[in-house]
């Protein structure tokens, strides 16, 4: 839905996961082999990926000041099961969190969240407030008060609804 630039760093993975579902149409790219391949998932991984996706969506809605879209497993509970390790680069001594198991989606997401926390970008990662959208986007607005994934689509629809409500 969004014409915005992709989220920075590891948040791109999280954005890709959350945006696998088009809330308006119900189309879910996790139903396709190509959609699963983009995230390195097998068919058996889909139920857990969907649970993680919706917990992330609820958290991103909270970042934007909105209640959860539905009851979900809290994101912290899901990420607590993520096997991470600290890696240290011998060349410069920099340290990062990395998935302990190659390919684990939950660990990759946990590492991306940790990276975003350190970088200070996590709270600017949001979900569109439009109930028929909830697309994930990175808020690059100066004040950090972005509300919609797309001003041209979701923002324009909201403003038109508000205008028509005044006219009635």
Give your account of this protein's structure.
The protein is mainly alpha-helical and 168 residues long. 41% of the residues lie in helices and 10% in strands. It is globular. The two termini are 29 Å apart.
Taking pLDDT < 50 over at least 5 consecutive residues as the criterion, the unreliable ranges are none
Number of helices: 6
As a percent range, the share of helical residues equals 40-55%
- The Rg value, from CA coordinates, equals 17 Å
The shape, in one word, is: globular
Reported for the largest beta sheet, the result is: 2 strands, antiparallel
The main sheet orders its strands as 1-2
Strand runs, count = 4
Strand content: 5-15%
Order of helices and strands: HHHHEEHEEH
Q: Based on helices, strands and strand pairing, what is the structural class?
A: mainly alpha
Topology:
Blueprint: H1 11-18, H2 33-38, H3 46-63, H4 75-79, E1 84-88, E2 95-99, H5 105-119, E3 125-127, E4 136-138, H6 151-167
Antiparallel strand pairs: 1-2, 3-4
Please name the defining characteristics of this protein:
168 residues; 4 strands; mainly alpha
Q: Gist?
A:
This protein is mainly alpha-helical and 168 residues long. It has six helices and four strands, in the order H-H-H-H-E-E-H-E-E-H.
